[in-house]
Amino acid sequence: MEYDASSPKSPGMIPSHDRPVLRLDSPLCRGQAHGKVILLGEHAVVYGAPAVALSVPDAICRAVALPSRLGGSGLMRFRFRSASTSAVQVTEQAQPELSALVDDLLERAADRHVQAVDIVMRSSFPAGRGLGSSAACARAAAEALNVLLDLSLSPAGIHDVVQRAENRTHGRASGIDTYATGSPGLLVLDKGRTRTPAVGRQAWVVIADSGTVSSTRQAVEMLRTRFVQAPGSRRAFLEASEALTVNGLHALAEGDLNRLGMRLNDAHALLQPLGLVTHAVQELIDAALAAGALGAKMTGGGLGGCAIALTDTAARADAVAARLRRNGAEHIWRVPLVREEHRS
Ligand code: PMV
């Protein structure tokens, strides 16, 4: 019986020999994680400056892990299906980081009752858009394997596994994606510590996918080279980023959305001259501002990926989303800063 990761309750009935197969007596072990966007502080956070992330609950990656019938050891069969509005991509070649994560967890399993695993994954959002896909997928897989291998990893243990995978993927990862893909709502990472920021007034973030793939590793390396070549530039960047992130957090706490929007614009103006913003992303930002967004910027590593825009009402978020769709956004997500179920 093949398992369809999109349908958590009901395994499908399609017999298949070239896909991971779930036997009726196999333990069914699932994991799940969501995507995220960075509101303020990307890149600076790699060097310890503060950054603010927002989870994207509708961007979900699910994983199912099962003992492989093929024998051997490690990750034997893999199937990953990711969706965007324009295309559905299926790959059966696991990223080396994911294979390493599997090996890592198999080595930790004291009772080696399982030595080879198959993993089926399904993601509702595309990879390579600055939405934290690599961390979300690593987290979903780690959670599924935690159950399958009976590892009893704590949330901190899962965090370490995901962060190791992130460091392999991005070269040097700040950890913000690792944290944000495992916690709901808003999160601040500042000098290695996380906290939930105060929110004075509800607002909406509209996320628009330009449809172009970004490489966080390449972007982080590009900035590092730039900072080495221009002495003093790193310090100036970090000071400016920290100042506007701190000011943006005050505006958020005070419910001053106009000022928060201005800080988003400032953050974009700081990142844009570093060569991180593609034409397609800039067009989305311009369209969002023309449609009445309070502020807009690139998000994540850059060199492609998504734009984000801040709005003060759900109706304005809808209007901005409609404009972004007309301007070629491949996918749109609307996320309130505070979810209804988390409101006190
Ligand atoms: O994975 P992305 O593209 O969302 O970027 C993460 C944010 C960076 O600051 C660019 C890198 C990091 O590790 O914090």
Distance between the termini: 44 Å
Structural class by sheet pairing and helices? alpha+beta
- String of helices and strands: EEEEHEHHHEEEHHHHEEHE
Oligomer description: single chain
The percentage of residues in β strands lies in: 15-25%
Poorly predicted parts: 1-17
List the total number of helices: 9
Task: Give the cofactors and ligands.
Answer: (3R)-3-hydroxy-3-methyl-5-(phosphonooxy)pentanoic acid
Rg over C-alpha atoms, rounded to the nearest angstrom? 20 Å
**Can you summarize the main beta sheet?**
7 strands, mixed
Compute the number of strand runs.
11
Q: Please tell me what the overall shape is.
A: globular
Mean pLDDT score: 90
Helix content: 25-40%
Descriptive keywords:
four-stranded antiparallel beta sheet; 344 residues; seven-stranded mixed beta sheet; binds (3R)-3-hydroxy-3-methyl-5-(phosphonooxy)pentanoic acid; disordered N terminus
